[in-house]
Write a structure and sequence with these properties.
Layout: H1 2-13, H2 21-79, H3 87-112
């Protein structure tokens, strides 16, 4: 297969149908270098993805912790009488908080750890 491609390239370049040994080694060398560069780029991309996953996981964890802390503080304030909220408002607050936390966790987990 490679010889057919090399022959076609040489024919298109006007060099004839059969490449010399030095030209074939040069093409093979260039192909190997390109494959190595491609693999190195893929490895660098995976390293970057892994680093970004760590950062995003920490940020999302922090966001969820702060969000829950604010909601729990509001619930404690209502419980101790320092803040007045209607029962419906408190119920909606707790329900949406639970749904948001579970939803964020599922979305982030599927995106960051899709494999």
């Amino acid at each position: 297969m490679e010889n057919k491609v090399l022959n076609k390239l040489n024919t298109l370049g006007g060099k004839g149908a059969s490449p010399s040994m030095s030209e074939e080694k040069e093409y093979t060398s260039t192909k190997a270098e390109m494959e190595i560069a491609n693999l190195q780029e893929e490895l660098d991309g995976r390293k970057q993805d892994r680093e970004q996953r760590k950062v995003f996981a920490l940020w999302i964890f922090g966001l969820v912790c702060v969000y829950l802390l604010v909601v729990l503080t509001a619930v404690y304030f209502v419980g101790f009488g320092l803040m007045v909220l209607n029962d419906i408002v408190l119920n909606v607050l707790l329900t949406t908080t639970t749904a948001n936390v579970i939803g964020i966790f599922i979305i982030v987990a599927k995106y960051l750890f899709h494999r």
